[in-house]
User: Fold this.
Amino acid sequence: MPYRILDLVTGQSRRQYSLANPIRPLWSGTRGATLRRMALPDLGRAVRHAWRLDPDFITVNHGSFGATPNCVLAGQDVWRHRMEEQPTRFMATVLPNALREAASRLAAFLGARGEDIAFVSNATSGCNAVLRSLSLRPGDEVLVLDHGYGAVRSTVRFVTERAGALMTEATIPFPDVTADGIAGAISAALGPRTRVAVIDHITSASALIMPMDRIIAACHDVGVPVLVDGAHGPGQVTVELNNLGADWYAGNCHKWLCAPKGCGFLWTAAERQKDTHPTVISHGLGQGYLQEFDWTGTIDPSAFLSIGAAIEFHEHLGGASMRQRNIELAAEAASLVARRLNTETVSGDSNGAMRLVRLPVSQSIAPGPLRARLLQAGTDAPVHAIGGGLWLRLSAFAYNELDDYARVADIVARVLRE
Assistant:
């Protein structure tokens, strides 16, 4: 019997997935076609019931872990049911093709080829695979950003120290951020011993969109390959991997694409695939890029196989128009909170659906306890010490609306008074 998945945006039964073939939806009559022609749904509170979000908690931190909607979780359950019906049959005869079909669906969304995409648990895992595949020598250098993600910087430090190599750093001008300043800082940090540059597509703590085309061109001009940490890219901004020109791109699907937790990917340019290996070496060693990455041992692959449902949900909410709406809402939200706190935001054209607001406190205050107090008070927004100040990072997603940030501003002001 098919498992019915509710379209929780419209409240109607949108389609069925059969356990015999949950890869493709079974549309019932004309209802599917009708829903495809429907106007895009109102966002904000009107769609919040599509997630299992706590109604008493103000969620303005989509950037850390995302939030998976009910319909995608239901699709994941279909795959789990099918896997457990007969695990050996599923792993041996169903999973290989299903995994490749999921990769092709993701590739179409990212402007890429399916054969260049391997699934990993998250972007950090993808960066680890690339960095631990490098053959570094003493004196070699790996360039990172001073705003780079801490876990990936730790990976770079680990691989360089083991090889007697060096981790070098490009300092991003902040808070006066411009594309010229970013590109110039990275170009100036490249040296004759730089073997790879690790560049965040969108920085995590400071929420800055890097001018990737200029950065990649500058690196390639001096023969330096580029690993892009795209943890925050897919679903927050438009990504066209075939046109980007990077050598590797590690991304998350569980954040801004709302896939289940544990769904990430590594895109590798064709000429780099031969020397790129998964962190966990298994039976596929030496048999090619996909053979090595597609099987690294027994895991629950249902998060990967649910990517089609996540992308469809994303597109139903508006796709590119929803992404632009989130970016505009984030800017408006940051301005509102900054006015309430009598402080400033990071402005410019380097911001996406995450924005920073400077907190009117001394940087001597530790960000960790302050964030813990916000959690206790009923909201969550990361607090980071950057460039001599403490900054609050706000995210905006489809379930948010401006009133959320007015309430957040009141909470932050109260916590700071206390």
About this structure: The CA atoms of residues 192 and 222 lie 8 Å apart. Confidence is low (pLDDT under 50) at residues 1-39. Residues 48-418 form a domain with the Aspartate Aminotransferase; domain 2 fold (CATH 3.40.640.10). The chain has one domain: 48-418.
